[in-house]
Amino acid sequence: MVRRIPPRRDRRLLAPLAALLVATVATSAAAQLSSRAVADAGPRDWAITGGMVHVGNGTVLDQATVVIRDGLIVSVEAGSDAPAGMGRLDAAGKHVYPGFITALSDLGLRAAAPQGRQAAGPGGGPSPPPPSRGPEDRPDTFSWRLAADDLQADDDRMAARRRAGFTSAVTAPRGGIVGGRAAFLNLAGDDARDLVLDPDVAVMVRLGTRGFRSFPGSAMGVIAYLRQLFMDASHYAEVWRMYEEDPAGLARPRYDRALAPLVPAAAGEQAVLLPAALDKEVRRMVGLAHEFGIRPVLYGGHEAGESAAFLAAHGVPILVNLNWPKADPEADPDAQVPLRTLRLRDRAPAGPAALAAAGVRFAFYMGEAPRSGPGPPGRRGGVPGGRGGSGDDLAAVRQAVERGLDREAALTALTMAPAEIFGVADRVGTLQAGRIANLVIADRDIFEEDAKVETVFVDGVIHRVDTDDEEETDGEETPGHEG
Amino acid sequence: MRHTKLFLAAVLLGAPLTFSQDTVIRGGTVLTVTGGTLSPGEVLIRDGKIAEVGTSVTVPDGAEVIDATGMFVMPGIVDAHSHIAAESINEGSVAVSSMTGTGDVVDPYDVNIYRELAGGVTTSNILHGSANPIGGLNVVIKHRWGADAAGLVLEGAPPGIKFALGENPKRSRGMPAGVERRYPATRMGVQDVIRQAFIEAEAYRQEFADYEAAQARGERVLPPRRDMKLEPLVEVLEGTRLVHAHCYRQDEILQLLRVAEEFGVRIATLQHVLEGYKVANEIAAHGAGASTFSDWWAYKVEAYDAIPHNAALMTERGILVSINSDSAEEARHLNQEAAKTVKWGGMSEEEALKMITINPAIQLGIGDRIGSLEAGKDADLAIFDRHPLSTYAVNQMTFVDGEMLFSRERDQAMRETMAAERAELEEKLSEADAERGPGRRGPREGVRR
User: Fold this and answer.
1) Interchain CB distance below 8 Å, B446 and A342
2) Taking CA atoms, what residue in A is nearest to B445?
3) Contact assessment for residue A104 and residue A319, using Cβ atoms and an 8 Å cutoff
C-alpha cells in the first residue's frame, strides 16, 4: 500500500537513514576532495591544546585538549597531549567553547519572500489567486516549503556570523503566516546540502496581516485562521488514517499540500515557532498552543522578566531577540513615550537573567527591531531578517550579562539550549566526544568586553578570524603541523 | 476549573488578591438599584462578594472600614457595547467573520481598562466591530486592571456574537476608489447573508447529526470537518449564544427580527437601535433587549431620525433597555449618559441607573452575578461623591470582586511615583543611548523594516 501521508514518526526514523546514505555518498566524494584539501589547505584533523575548555554543559576544564578527527570531536581531556599526525593549535591562555548557535535566522536564504496576496489553494497551481476569502483559501500558507531546500552556501552573512563565533543557525523560511519549516544548519560548506543538520526542525509562524481586504485582515483573524488550520490538519490526519486503513466504502479524502506537512505539528510532535515579544503575547501564544494541542517555541521575549514564572510553569522555551528595544527614531519627538515603553527598553536586557533564575529554557537570536505602540501586533514579534551584524549578538548578550545573566547560563543559551530546543543536542551544542566539531576559540572569556574570536571550527574545518581586517582565512595556513 | 485557571493566572502575574480581607463601606447612601435606596446604608464585602447590604451590617473583627459619609455607593457600571482592551476588532475581509473573536486578542495593557474604572465601570462587553453582517465573537471582561488577558475575562459569562445591519456592513462609507466592494452592498444583501449563514449552519449541524447517527449504527464513516465559522452559528440556532446586533433603522431592525424568527432565533440585544422607538412593539414582541446611546444623532444618514427619548420610549413599551458607550471616552461618564434619560424621557432615578447596571447585566446573561448591590453578588461597586446622576458627581473609588482597583486618592499618589520613575528611566536610557552611540555597539545592523 502506498503511504499518502508519511507520519512524522516514520519520517524521523527514515531521516537518519537518509542522512547516512547522503553521508556515505558525501564521504566518498569528500575523501577525494579532502586529499586535495589537505594538500592545499592544511590539516583536516586537529588537536587544540592547553585551553580553558568550556564543555557547554556546565563543566569547565582548564588546560585541556580537544581532539578533532574527520569533522567530529574525538576527545576532550585535561592535559596537553596531542596525538601525532594532526594539526596542533596551541590554545594556552585561550578559551574554547562549543560553536555558538543563533536560534532563528534567515541565514543562507537569498530568495525573496513570496510576493503579494498569494493564497495557495489546496494543491493549487501557480496562478495568482484573488484575495483570500476565508481559511479554506489557506492564505499566506507555505507549510510545504523547507528552508533547507532554498539554502545558498555562498551567503556572505554566514561568514560574518562565523567571525562572531557562530557555527550553527536555525533558518526559517521568509514570509507567510505559515512560512514553512525551519532547518538547523552549520554555517559553512561548499554546497548548500553540506550545511543542513536537520532539514525539518520546526514550523515557522508569523502573525502578519495583509489589511482589510484579504482574509485574515486582523490580529484576531490570523489567530482564527491558525485555529482552523491546525484543526483541519488534525482532521486531515484522521481521515487519511482511516482511509489508508481500509478505503473500501469511504469517500476519498482530498489531498491538501498545506495540511499534509502540518500533521506532525498538529499532533504536538513538531515544534511550532510563535511570535511573542511582549508578556501579553507570551501568555496568549501559550494559551493558544495549549488549545490547539501544538508544541510552542516562542520567539521575541522582550518582556521575559514578566514572563519567566509563567513560562517556567508551562515548560515553554523561548528564543530571546537580542535586538533590544531602542528609542523609535521615527517617533514624534514631542510625543511622550509611554511609561510602559520606557520600562520595556530598560528591562528587556535583564529578561534573560530572570529566565535563567526561573529555570526557563531559552536561546538567543538576532531579529528585527520589534515595534511597540500602535501598528499590527504581528510586527512586534521581531522576526529574523535583514543583515545580521557580526559582533552584535555577543555585544547584546554581554548587556544581558551586565544585567545579571550568569555567564554559564549565557553560554548555555548560545550553545546547548538551542540544540536541545530543536532536537539536535546529540550532535551539536556541547564539546563532547562524538559530537560534531563546531568550536570557537577566543582570546579571553567571551563575555569580557574586548574578547575576540580568533578561530572557529565548523564540521572540523578551521576558519581563522583575522582580527585586523575582520577577514577570515579558511584553513589556508598550516601552523604547528607536526605530521 | 475556570476559577483555578484564573487564580493561577493571577498568582503568576503577581496580581493582588485580597480575598481574605473583609471590607465594610458605611455612612453613605447605598443605591442598590434592585432593592431601593438605603440612606444611610452599609455594605459588607467578603471573599470578593457582597456578603450583606442593609442599614446596618455585621462589622467583622479586622475588617477594613471605609467611611462613605455623604457619598453614594452604586453597583459597578456595566457597558454593554465596548471596543477597548482588544488589539483588533474588525475582520472586515469577509461578510461572515464568526470564526474570529475579540477574546483571542484581549489587551490587558490597554489603559482604558483603568480609565474606565475611574468612571465607575467594572464590566464591559468587548464586541467585534460592525464591518460585516455576521461579525466575530465577543468577550465580557471585568476591569481587573493588572490581571493578564485570561484574568480579565469574566468567567462563566454566556458566549455572544456580533451581527451588524445597515451602512457599515454594506460598506456605503469610506471605501477608497478602485477598491472592489465586498458583498453585500444593500440592506437586502445583509439580510441574505444572515439567512444564508443560518441555512449553512443548519446543514452543518445536520452533517454532524448524520455522522453521529451513522456511528451509532456502527457504520464506518469519515468524521466531518469542524468549521469554526459555523459552530458559533449553530450555537445561535440552539439559543446558547447571544446575538448582539448593531442596527439603526426601523426597516433593518424588522428585517433582522423576521429572519431570526424564521430560524427560531431570539436576538439578545439590538445595539444602537436608534429608531427602536418606531418599532418598539415589534422589538418587545420578539423579546430582544435594546442597548442604545443617550443622545447621539445625525452623525450619519442612518442616524438622522434618532431622538434622545428613545431609551425611555422603548422602556415604556416593555423592552429591557441599557445605555452603552461604544467609546472609551463616553464610557468614563456613563452615569451622566444615564442621567439624560431622566431629563429627556422622564425616567425615575432608579430606572436610569438600571440602564447602566442591572439591565445591561441581564442583557449579557450575567444579571444573577452583577449589576446590583445584593448579598451574594460580585462585590463590584463604585463610590461617587454626589448622586451619580448629578453632573457634578465624581467617582472616588471603584471595587472589582471586592478589591479596590481605583481610588482618586491613590491615583494622585501614583501619578507622583510614576513621574519619578519616568524621569529616572528617561535619564538612564538617554545615557545608555549616548554611550552606545549610533551604529557602534548597539545591534543596529539586524534592523530591517
Assistant:
1) no
2) A389
3) yes
pLDDT grade for A30, boundaries at 50, 70 and 90: very low
Position A341, amino acid:
T
Residue from the list B105, B180, B447 with its beta carbon closest to the beta carbon of A220: B105
- Helices and strands in chain B: count of H runs, count of E runs: 12, 16
> How many inter-chain contacts (A to B, CB under 8 Å) are there?
180
The distance of B65 to chain A (nearest Cα, Å) reads: 34
What is the phi-psi region of residue B141: left when phi exceeds 0, alpha when psi lies from -120 to 50, beta otherwise?
Answer: beta
Among A219, A232, A339, beta carbon nearest to B225: A232
Dist CA A159 CA A25 (whole Å) = 26
What is the DSSP pairing of strand A362-365 with strand A439-442? unpaired
Q: In this predicted model, what pLDDT tens digit does every residue of B314-362 receive, in sequence order?
A: 999 999 999 999 999 999 999 999 999 999 999 999 999 999 999 999 9
Strand B37-46 to strand B23-31: parallel, antiparallel, or no bridges (unpaired)?
A: antiparallel
Contacts of A346 in chain B (CB under 8 A): 425, 428-429
Name every chain A residue with its beta carbon within 8 A of the beta carbon of B102: 220
CA of B35 to nearest chain A CA: how many angstroms apart? 40
Measured between beta carbons, which residues in chain A are less than 8 angstroms from residue B426?
342
Residue bearing cell 449618559: B337
Measuring CA to CA, which residue among B146, B98, B148, B102 is closest to residue B124?
A: B102
Q: What is the pLDDT of residue A476?
A: 44
Segment (H or E) for A307 = helix A304-314
Q: Hey, are the CB atoms on A340 and B92 less than 8 Å from each other? A: no
Residue type, A44: R
Interface confidence, given as ipTM, is: 0.92
Query: CA-CA distances (angstroms) from residue B270 to B137, B195, B245, B367?
Result: 15, 17, 5, 18
Chain B residues with CB-CB distance to A387 below 8 A: 445-446, 448
- Chain A CA closest to residue B448: A386
Phi-psi region of B154 (alpha: psi -120 to 50; beta: other; left: phi over 0): beta
Domain ranges of chain A: 101-428
By C-alpha distance, which of A201, A205, A203, A202 is closest to A177?
A205
Are the beta carbons of A283 and B148 separated by less than 8 Å? yes
Residues in chain B: 449
Report the percentage of chain B scoring pLDDT > 90: 87
CATH no. for A101-428: 3.20.20.140
Cβ neighbours of residue A482 closer than 8 Å, sequence gap 6 or more? A82, A84, A88
Looking at every residue in chain A, the average pLDDT score rounds to 85
B184 Rama class: left (phi>0) / alpha (psi -120 to 50) / beta: beta
Which of the pair, B2 or B136, is modelled with greater confidence?
A: B136
- The CA-CA-CA angle for residues A364, A367, A370, to 5°, reads 115
CA–CA separation, B82 vs B123, rounded Å? 10
Residues of chain A positioned with their CB less than 8 A from the CB of B89: 218, 220
d(Cα B26, Cα B28) in Å, to the nearest integer? 6
Minimum distance, in Å, between the CA of residue A275 and any CA atom of chain B: 14
Cis peptide bond prior to A352, omega within 30° of 0:
no
Select the residue from A218, A236, A322, A337 to test the B interface by mutation, using most B Cβ atoms within 10 A. A218
The answer to whether residues A51 and A96 touch, using CB atoms and an 8 Å cutoff, is: yes
- Give the chain B residue whose CA is nearest to the CA of A133: B94
CB–CB of B33/B372 below 8 Å?
yes
Average pLDDT on B150-166 reads 97
- The arithmetic mean of pLDDT across residues A37-55, rounded, is 79
Alpha carbon distance A360, A420 (integer Å)? 13
The Cα–Cα gap between A167 and A179 comes to 24
Q: A-chain residues within 8 Å CB-CB of B422?
A: 339, 342
pLDDT digits (tens, 9 = 90+) for A123-153: 544 444 578 899 999 999 999 999 999 999 9
